Amino acid sequence: MALTRRAGLIALLGAVAVVLAPRPGLAFGLLLGLLAVLIGVDLALAGSVRALRFQRQGENALRLGDSAEVTLLVENPGSRRVRGRVRDAWAPSVRATPREQPLDVPPGERRRLVFRLSPLRRGDHRAVAVTVRAFGPLGIAARQGSHLAPWSVRVLPPFLSRRHLPSRLARLRELDGRHPALVRGQGTEFDSLREYVVGDDVRSIDWRATARRQDVVVRTWRPERDRRVLIVLDTGRTSAGRVGVDPTSGDPAGWPRLDWSMDAALLLAALAAKAGDRVDFLAHDRTVRAWVSGASRTETLPALVNAMAPLEAELVEADAPGMVAAVLTRARRRCLVVLLTDLNAAALEEGLLPVLPQLSARHQVLVAAVADPRVAELAAGRDSAEQVYDAAAAEKLRGDRRRITARLRRHGVEVVDALPEDAAPALADAYLALKAAGRL
Amino acid sequence: MSVPTTPRIRDRWRTWRGTVGALLLITLAAVLMVGLTAPRPGGYLDAEGTGLGGTHALVELLADQGVRVEQVRTLEEAREIATPDSLVVLARPEYLIDGDVLDRIDDLPGDLLLIEPLDAMLPELAPGASMGSYEPVRSRAPECGLREAVQAGTARMGGSFYQLTGPDARCYGGALIRYRPGGRTTTIVGSGDFMTNGKLAEDGNAALAMNLVGAKPRVTWFAPRIPLGDEPPSTLEELLPEQVDWLIWSLIVAVGLLAVAQGRRLGPVVAEKLPVVVRAAETAEGRGRLYRARRARDRAAHALRAACLDRVVPRLGLSPAAEPDAIVAAIAVRVGQDAGQIRSTLYGPAPEDDARLVALARRLDLIERQVRDS
């Protein structure tokens, strides 16, 4: 039940009447009675909210930063017209607009209401309740009730780095057969024989074939295909730290490292899928948070995006031995393990470094991390003593980062440490370099 | 398909009826208990007062003995019920200061018991009596021949002591006097303390009080609450017209309805799990503040120098493990500066104050830039 302002206004007018009446006590009693009767009649004549039936249509998934429309079908099977207001309640960050809409459904008919969602956060969002307030014919009182009309929307990572994909695919084609590479790398595969043209490397001449064909023939090579790439996303506490500027909302508080890492992982996955490699995905902190394996090349990206959508950084220390064990049990053949984490000296020295040899003995390991531009900003401060102290602290942090990088490299691990905006292209370039060198 | 989530009214009633019932029961019990046991209001020497200062206990005792005590507040009431065969107890004489009122009290038929009368009213009500000294209230012996006092024995008496000019019965050193001026038995006590609920059980208080008050079968207990004789002033409520009262009630109803209309939410409040917001640079900033707070120039200088060397040494083509001497020499050759100055910049002691720390940072920047540009 709900009242409208009209009820209050009637009571105010009644107050005037009470003042003017010869017997104010009686007038007050009459006013109370009148109000009770009007409210009762209006409630009795209002359309039934409980009988309404709701259905939804619309989108189930959207990228962060986009907006989606969800349609609400309201059916009135009752015998009275339902006239009032509807609110479709979602979590505040989903930003369902308009907040409420007018509704007017005659008996036996249905109406279509469209709500637009512009979520601010990644993950799964569920509709909480649909609430209808149905006014009576006098507009004094209303019936109000809520219905559960289930619907959920999955907000996917925005994959902003896809703008870097065309240029990286061009580089990939250079490596690939369309721009034949005559450099023989470790692990490259024999592709075909073709006639020598001026400019080819004489070392690639296949003398046996030349002898048979009476023409100079060179061997061409192509980069290895059907390699495996395992992207491991660290969802522990170090991934919760915010760096840079949130590219979807412009929030200067930054975007979590996890989201930057996802962006880089998606570019890498898209590139690797195009290059004919198989991409698996593992998210891990204390336990396995997500695992995607065996997706076909065209399905890789949707599968990854779906698996990443609900991931959030957990405020726990990542369990590096557990992560290594999870990788070793899942990846039986040699693969490129891309570990997206933070180069936090303390966390890595205690966690990853002791177990790294097990991993690097069987797999090629690449550690990718997102550096904090704010630290670089602090390190450049020279204007006052305070700024120099901050700069020293920032330099100390960067020094630790350099040292841990050097130690990782001594273990034969590739390290990519780039600022947020550059992380995705830098990781893609590192992958292409490994591929060109035949080290996958 | 949708499911209604708002409970039906009867379901809601089923959920809440236990709570509502319990609340009603508790309220009822509380009201009953308070109503039965709370001291009834009433001031000092009020015949209906059940507090420590009231005299309801005495009234009850007298009722058991067949003595009817009726409390009156106004002179008119007193005049209605007073008979020649009754006793008028004047309990709160401080409100009776008007001479005209005193006259009319004097005209009341029957005997008179004055409790703590003021000096000013003695000539009217008790001619021949006058007020003497003032003594504290304590246990006193009767020391007189008055039957009522002798039977009661010691009692808590005191207050004003009275003197008489004529023949009299003067007990407790003057705190109780009895005589018959003009044919009516007049008793004066200097303190009513002994007949209050709080003190009645001590000494011979109860006996004395019953002897004095229960002398006649009907007692008019005259205890006015406001000064008699003057018109009581009209209050604000009485001056306002009747409509204002009802206007206020109507406005309360109107505002209540408006509040309900405005306060009713359309649908639930939706709670959301908020993400953690931790800026990654907070560790660096925190460490910077620590350096600053402790003026840790040595650590700051060390960090700045190490960072500079990390960047400069690879550019010089030296291995990271190169000796300081080799590094200093290489830089000196590269930038064409004095080796001693470069050594003190890169390996010298920690700066002694903040200004020198800033200067050191700038010199390190300069060396780095020169090596890079050369």
TrEMBL record, chain A:
The keyword Cell wall biogenesis/degradation does not apply. InterPro entries: DUF58 (IPR002881). Pfam families: DUF58. Residues 193-405 form the DUF58 domain. Keywords: Membrane, Transmembrane, Transmembrane helix. The chain crosses the membrane at residues 27-46. The keyword Membrane applies. PANTHER family: BLL2464 PROTEIN, SLR2013 PROTEIN. This is DUF58 domain-containing protein.
Automatic annotation (TrEMBL), chain B:
The chain crosses the membrane at residues 20-38. InterPro entries: DUF4350. The keyword Transmembrane helix applies. Keywords: Membrane, Transmembrane, Transmembrane helix. Residues 54-213 form the DUF4350 domain. It holds the Pfam family DUF4350. This is Membrane protein.
